[in-house]
Amino acid sequence: MAPPEKIELKKQAQQLIEQYDNFLFDCDGVIWLDEKLIPGVLETIEHLESQGKRFAFVTNNSSKSRDTYIEKFHRLGFKGIGKHLIYPTCYAAASYLKEHLKVPAGAKVWVLGDHGIETELKELGYIPVGGSDPRLDDEFHPQHDLLKVDPDVRAVVVGSTKAFNYMRIATTLQYLLHENKSLPFIGTNIDRSYPGPEGLILPAGGSVVNYMSYTSNRDFIDVGKPSKRLLETILEQRDFDKSKTLMIGDTMYTDIKFGNDGQLGGESGGSLLVLSGGTKLKDLHHLIENPASLQDGPSLIPLKYIESFGHIIHLLSN
Ligand SMILES: O=C(O)[C@H](O)[C@H](O)COP(=O)(O)O
Ligand SMILES: [Mg+2]
């Protein structure tokens, strides 16, 4: 496999834009770092729009609903980003329950995670339980009411939360073990960590999901990147030709694998790694030099890489 091409010249930036019609953006580490917009990204996306390019945002971050993301995009200066362009994994989880598992509206769903999951479940007619219930902040005691399983719960969704505590782990475990482990166990994403504020690398949703997987000794259904089902849903809903679509992300085992396994960009490929988030150049070099050291080897290697997506507008204006 050819080593990834570094985009550093104006003509390479122009070629990239000519080659693809559709752009799928990861958010954390590509568009922003927490509340800070990554320089040049807004201008580059506005340039793509002016060229008639189409795009969508696909984030493994389950903490915010699509409506909350719209507010964030507006706050950061993006105009006209509608709900239909945003695919966070809280929405992917709720859609999976409805479209794939056919869990009927009106069913209760146990949640370990932040508000985004509860909001998206409600939008599809489900009744979230657990989640932000303040009783989950109580100190653990074995007679606590919430440790008794509600028999009306039909599925469990686990995602990132900053309120991880023993009550949440213990209550969620009761549901995962309930009736011989028969309730579907959905995990929003597999990310170990993410690039947070102040340059900190922070624990991500995958740590919470895998904690629950370990303690329950159960596998989970991963609805986030690199899930092929998520990609197919986006391509279908947005009517994107996959051979003309590029995935842009900062994480190789989620974003780049999503683009490569999904065969974006046709025979030439369709994955672009940005170094503005959690992956640094040394990580890319490590992967290229030791592909066997990572389980998924070549499917994690991007077609191209660039220091940040915002760098494109800088290259184009030179
Ligand atoms: O669990 C999380 O919150 C995610 O790991 C993280 O924020 C990744 O989001 P993405 O880079 O897919 O936007
Ligand atoms: Mg990211």
3D architecture notes:
This protein has a domain of 133 residues: 3-Layer(aba) Sandwich (Rossmann fold), CATH 3.40.50. The protein has a seven-stranded parallel β-sheet with strand order 1-16-15-14-2-5-6, with helices on both faces. The chain is 36% helix and 18% strand. It contains eleven helices and 16 strands. It is α/β, with parallel strands linked by helices. α4 runs parallel beside α5. The two termini are 31 Å apart. The radius of gyration is 20 Å and the shape is elongated. The structure holds 4-phospho-D-erythronate (DEZ) and magnesium ion. 4-phospho-D-erythronate binds next to loops. GO terms for molecular function: alkaline phosphatase activity; metal ion binding; phosphoglycolate phosphatase activity; phosphoprotein phosphatase activity.
Concise description?
With 318 residues, the chain is of the alpha/beta class. The protein has helices at 10-19, 41-50, 66-75, 89-100, 115-123, 166-181, 205-216, 228-238, 252-261, 281-289, 311-316; strands spanning 5-6, 22-25, 32-33, 36-37, 54-59, 86-88, 108-112, 127-130, 153-158, 185-187, 193-195, 201-203, 221-222, 245-249, 271-274, 304-306. The longest helix has 16 residues, at 166-181.
Task: Give the key terms.
single chain; 318 residues; alpha/beta; Rossmann fold; 7-stranded parallel beta sheet; 5-stranded parallel beta sheet; 11 helices; 16 strands; binds 4-phospho-D-erythronate; binds magnesium ion
